[in-house]
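FAQ
Q: What does a multi-component entry look like?
A: The components come first, one per line:
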Amino acid sequence: MKNLTLKQFRYFEALARHGHFGRAAEACAISQPALSMQIKALEEELGAPLFERDRRQVRLTNFGEEIALRARDILRALDDLEGFARASRGRLVGRLRIGVIPTVAPYLLPSLIADLIRLHGGLDLHVRETLTPKLVQELNDGRIDVAIVALPVSEPSLTEAPLFTEEFVLVRPRADEGQPVPNREALREMRLLLLEEGHCFREQALTFCNRPTHAAQPRGLLDASSLSTLVQMVEAGLGVTLIPEMAVGVETRSASVSIARFTNPKPSRTIGMVWRTTSPLTAQLLQMSETVRRSAGALGQAAAARA
Amino acid sequence: MKNLTLKQFRYFEALARHGHFGRAAEACAISQPALSMQIKALEEELGAPLFERDRRQVRLTNFGEEIALRARDILRALDDLEGFARASRGRLVGRLRIGVIPTVAPYLLPSLIADLIRLHGGLDLHVRETLTPKLVQELNDGRIDVAIVALPVSEPSLTEAPLFTEEFVLVRPRADEGQPVPNREALREMRLLLLEEGHCFREQALTFCNRPTHAAQPRGLLDASSLSTLVQMVEAGLGVTLIPEMAVGVETRSASVSIARFTNPKPSRTIGMVWRTTSPLTAQLLQMSETVRRSAGALGQAAAARA
DNA sequence: GTTTTTCATAAGGACGACTTATCGTCACAA
DNA sequence: TTGTGACGATAAGTCGTCCTTATGAAAAAC
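Then the predicted structure of the entire assembly, as tokens:
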């Protein structure tokens, strides 16, 4: 009973509809004997005649009628499946689980999500915000499909696609407005407020200052858990901090702080998408990276215009 | 896209469940390469990867998950279909369209229907009552599955199975009770009330009397459309009539008429089932004829006991 | 009686699916 | 670093399945 085939169902359906072996065979684009044999095989598999053959006509038996109903259901489900497959060719479909680091998420996600929904209607988007190492782990475990992090990640199993590079800007109290912009050495002497450990942005900031990234920080109690908190701490006069360009608009809009850009050398980070090299979404993710690159470019230009 | 096979769905489902080519292949009782090839073929047909292959695991893609849902639906429908086929092996199932002549229907149908329902629960029984020629036509057209008529029908395309033979009895006014039973010749001189033309029972009665069956009947206006009417006409003193043994119980219960049985020669008819020789229900109909034969036998004995 | 129609059967050939054997790659361990 | 094992992909060959054309059988139509 395990040798029923969809082909048999298709032939059967055709014969049921036409009531004539020759015409049904023609409709199936096969020869009449081929159809006869498949029908016979189907009847043997099912253990009962599906048709009553007569010189004058070929009629479904009761049994055949019931089987026809069920067979048509199956063929319809098959058509649906094929249609679904056709419709999802090369498109992002269903669930997309995306991970984003905290220093990117609040600034990139709104436009990113809007773009994705616009381009891939019906996409079931799951967003997860956490630190890079966790995202890498989750990528490797297949718990998320793609992550947006600072490059490089340098995981052999992952493919990286750079999206954009952005500078870090100095955030200092409004009172410092107009003061000369410190260079790296001067910055090292200032009270630099940082994110908690684990944030890649923390390490990048420290690296820019040429400070040991893993050395104990005496004022660890002041480490913030978000850029927003950092800016508020600056506003409160606790020190200065760095934030990425992308965050300037959101985080300094309503804060009385002063923004200054470094010159020579300029601190910066490259944000990129990463995914498992083996991911079948590779093509779509590459396309998606293009989209993000464009919309991030627009974002950057807007930020630059603001500055 | 027209080469999707149920086999591929079964393999696919197994791989989705096991997440491991080797074990899935084992579950399908095939070799691992065979499974690999079918999965590959399926992915090519659908135009998108179903699995993400990794050294560590084999995971469904989003696309694969959706396809898995639909494939499982199809496999489930297939199982149902197979189960239905298995369950209906050799049994009467679904609709059974049965035609019965009017001089049999009222007396046989109650017990026949009860028997059929008892033996083939869920049978969708359609009963049609009309004259023999129409029943034969409907049989040949496939509009009914079986008919119960007086034999012989002598249609080459139909198979006949006798059920029982029953005598005709004379029905005359109560006043005639105890009078000698007329023989055929005497009967010919009496006012014999008959059914309308077309009823085989009419022809059989006339044949018994040796009257021309197709000759114009001067008192055609008196022809009745049912045995019940005939008996009432006898009761009204319009003449005498013949009715089949089977009808005696029902038709004379509440009528003040007298019943007499002929002797030597006894008029009689043979009731039988007929169906298309090509009908796939042949086996079941034969079995059914056995059942009817038995229950009609009981009926006949009861009638004989009453007489 | 002959022809036509229609479905079943027969014989042969092409294609597809399965098998075993082997490869390539990564992970893990010495 | 270098085996070693696990795992999936690939290769080659065989066998079975399904299709084709040709033919048969039986009834209907002419």
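Q: Is there any commentary attached?
A: Sometimes. For this entry: Strands of chain B lie at 51-53, 58-60, 95-100, 124-129, 146-151, 158-173, 192-193, 240-244, 257-261, 268-276.
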